[in-house]
Design a protein that fits this description.
binds ligand LFPHGCPZ; 7-stranded antiparallel beta sheet; 2 domains; 8-stranded mixed beta barrel; TIM Barrel; 22% strand
Length: 533
């Protein structure tokens, strides 16, 4: 993914990382606010039910008490008792006695007025019936509910059930299972009343927040408009905001950290490895004696998606530090075998030197990797050289074990950049390497009066003493070539011969007619590379 795409994605994910948790928080706050409102409404509905139950119980009790009296129903004593029961009960408005359709007396005295035919709407028990809407003759105002036992009746104002202390926006209703809606307060609409009378699960959901409670034969409803919820919503949202802010911060930090990682060199190398953007160029290695090409050094390159080519020294050290060098080495080995399988199989006199890092040399895992990779390719292990810098061989014991294992399989091993590291005679004696590659910095001093120009004769002497093959790096001019050839350095590479080449160009270079010995004539025994285990 390109840099600006990663930055765009980071911005989008950061915004989403902030918006989504805040939206979820708002939704959660809304649900909590609704839940709290529903709880408040349930308390109101419970109060309505309680009032209804108490009122009914009081009316039933009063009627039973009156029915048990033996005195003349409309005697002064009986009327006094009716009045006493009416006054003692908050719910009962009136108790009366009916005789042959005539209201003989009530708690307020004798009347003699017509009672009329009042149909009963439902029965509480076998002998107690209820009429929901009774218009009392003495016009107490609102329609009343009448409970009747034998000839006694008690009038209850149903408004008393629903007349609970609540905000004006709160709508309340009470229904009896058999009698339907008994009382309402603040005029609940038909959609709310439907919740009392029909199946609540199938009834259309009203826009209001509501609570419906059923106890015994009564069902009570309390409802509030959604706008009432907003007052508690703010409080709930502010309560949830601190944890939401923490989540948002964590998400944004994680997004930024991930994109920084992806934008970091390590992240970019990881993407490059994932997309296998690394490829190999081959710098010819020349036998100085007759300038015959005997092989090549594999030098990794990175072609980014935008087409830019990154040189090895800009990413190899990073890959070494980040532990990505293993994957990189593996991809280089695979690439070399793909690029060179045909050429190496046809030309057993040719070798390719692959660079390995400290991690590769310490772990020794490359030996197995090479062994597996070479299987069935027709390439001889002798044709793959291992190159490692002196710094890569610092853990002498582990490096020696890897070198020995390489020898056992037929590979040769060269110390790269010789002279720039910790090279000492003792150190070299401990490592059974086959060749040294004299670093370019020393080759550069040939023919100059640089202070380091005196080093190269010593390196050459030391290598000869230890019977090591020498390959000089970075030969750029004829003077350097002449000096090295005269000093007995067997091999060399550098821009004087060729720059690192693409595989096809290297094969063409290898087969070039100019000054080259015919491939058939270039037999391994004539090569300085015929050394080895
Ligand atoms: N672990 C691995 N290390 C690798 C691998 N491929 C390369 N490397 C190491 O990276 C360092 C830089 O290498 P590179 O940029 O490829 O440079 C090499 C040559 O291009 C350059 N060269 C060769 N001849 C000349 C010359 O005449 N003049 C001149 N100015 N430069 C020249 O030198 C580098 C050769 O390096 P080496 O022989 O290995 O020292 C370098 O340390 C590589 O080792 C890899 O796959 N794995």
């Amino acid at each position: 993914m390109k840099r600006h795409h990663i930055i765009q994605l980071t911005v989008v994910l950061s915004i989403a990382g902030a918006v989504i948790p805040l939206a979820i928080t708002a939704l959660l706050a809304w649900n909590l606010a609704v839940r709290h409102k529903e709880d408040e409404l349930a308390v109101l509905a419970a109060r309505v039910l309680e009032r209804a139950e108490i009122a009914m119980a009081q009316a039933e009790g009063a009627l039973s008490a009156m029915a048990q009296r033996t005195a003349d129903p409309c005697s002064a004593d009986n009327i006094e008792e009716m009045r006493r029961l009416t006054i003692r009960s908050r719910a009962i408005e009136e108790i009366g006695y009916i005789e042959e359709g005539v209201l003989a007396c009530t708690s307020w005295g004798s009347t003699g007025s017509e009672y009329g035919t009042v149909a009963s709407d439902f029965r509480i028990s076998n002998d107690m019936s209820v009429s929901i809407r009774v218009e009392p003759n003495d016009a107490l105002g609102t329609p009343m509910m009448a409970l009747r036992l034998q000839r006694y009746y008690a009038l209850i104002d149903p408004g008393h059930f629903t007349d609970v202390l609540a905000a004006p926006t709160i709508r309340v209703a009470l229904a009896h299972n058999e009698g339907g809606v008994l009382a309402t307060n603040n005029a609940p609409g038909p959609d709310l009343l439907a919740l009392l009378t029909s199946d609540r699960t199938t009834a259309p959901q009203p826009p209001d927040v509501y609570a419906v409670l059923t106890r015994g034969a009564f069902t009570a409803l309390a409802a509030a408009p959604r706008s009432d919820v907003s007052s508690t919503l703010r409080r709930e949202f502010l309560l949830l905001l601190p944890p939401a802010a923490v989540i948002v911060t964590v998400i944004i930090l994680a997004v930024i950290a991930t994109s920084r990682r992806r934008l970091s060199p390590t992240g970019e190398i990881a993407s490059g490895l994932h997309r296998r953007e690394f490829f190999v160029r081959y710098q010819p290695i020349i036998r100085l004696e007759d300038e015959v090409c005997l092989g090549a050094e594999a030098l990794v390159r990175w072609r980014r998606r935008d087409g830019t080519e990154v040189p090895a020294d800009q990413f190899v050290p990073i890959a070494e530090r980040s532990g990505q060098i293993r994957e990189l080495t593996d991809q280089v080995i695979d690439r070399v075998l793909v690029d060179m399988a045909d050429t190496l199989a046809k030309r057993p006199d040719i070798h390719v030197a692959i660079n390995f890092s400290a991690d590769d040399m310490d772990s020794g895992r490359i030996i197995t990797k090479l062994e597996n990779a070479l299987k069935g390719t027709g390439i001889q292990p002798q044709q793959i050289w291992l190159e490692a810098t002196e710094r890569s061989l610092m853990h002498v014991d582990r490096a020696r074990a890897t070198i020995i294992a390489a020898h056992e399989r037929g590979h040769s091993v060269a110390i790269d950049d010789f002279g720039t590291g910790y090279s000492s005679l003792q150190y070299l004696q401990q490592l059974p390497v086959d060749a040294i590659k004299i670093d370019k910095t020393f080759v550069d001093t040939i023919g100059t009066d640089a202070a380091t120009s005196i080093v190269i004769p010593h390196i050459i002497e030391m290598a000869k003493t230890l019977n090591l093959v020498m390959v000089a790096e970075g030969i750029e001019n004829a003077e350097q070539l002449a000096y090295l050839r005269a000093a007995g350095v067997q091999g060399g590479q550098g821009y004087l011969f060729a720059r690192p080449l693409d595989p096809g160009d290297f094969v063409a270079y290898l087969n070039r007619p100019r000054g080259a010995v015919a491939p058939e004539a270039t037999q391994p025994e004539t090569s300085f590379l015929s050394i080895g285990p």
